[in-house]
Design a protein that fits this description.
- By secondary structure, the protein is mainly α.
- Helices cover 74% and strands 0% of the residues.
- The longest helix is centred in the C-terminal third of the chain and has 46 residues, at 105-150.
- The termini are far apart.
- 21% of the residues are buried.
Amino acid sequence: MTMTAGLTGETPLNDERDVSVDTFVGTNGGYYSSVFESLQRGELPRWHFNIWGVFIPWLWAAYRGVWVMFWISIAIDLLAIVCLMQLVKFAPLLAEAQLNPSENATLIERYTRWIANFSSVGWALLIVGRLWMGSSANRWYYAQYSRWRINKSVPNWVSAKRVICGLVIAAIVM
């Protein structure tokens, strides 16, 4: 604010910036304007899904700069992949044990149980985790928009650099 602004009757110099949804999101402004308005009114159903948040949540989150969702979705996907990779590990061991079932009854029972458990947990994490990410994506994005309206250093717009960063992080972590 300048000292002369108050004396001359001029409006003070403020951080006048466009805080509209379109300026924040960069692309798909109409979709996000509608979703954010529904969230503000408390009318967005819990089962409303962001399709990109379901199918590629960590990539969508990096693209939009929603880093909390990025890290949570990476963790869920990584845990699901680790569980599902146990099938690759134990299936050959089970096949080998089944060649001589009389001597390997304990191993057959153990490998069968492990394969069933890891398979169930892995698929449940992958499916339920993706559904949760998809239903939470727009809510987290709206929270980011609310922070951005106050603090211009909060990530906004879309960024290929963030996608590349997300892909590098995912490659290192996974």
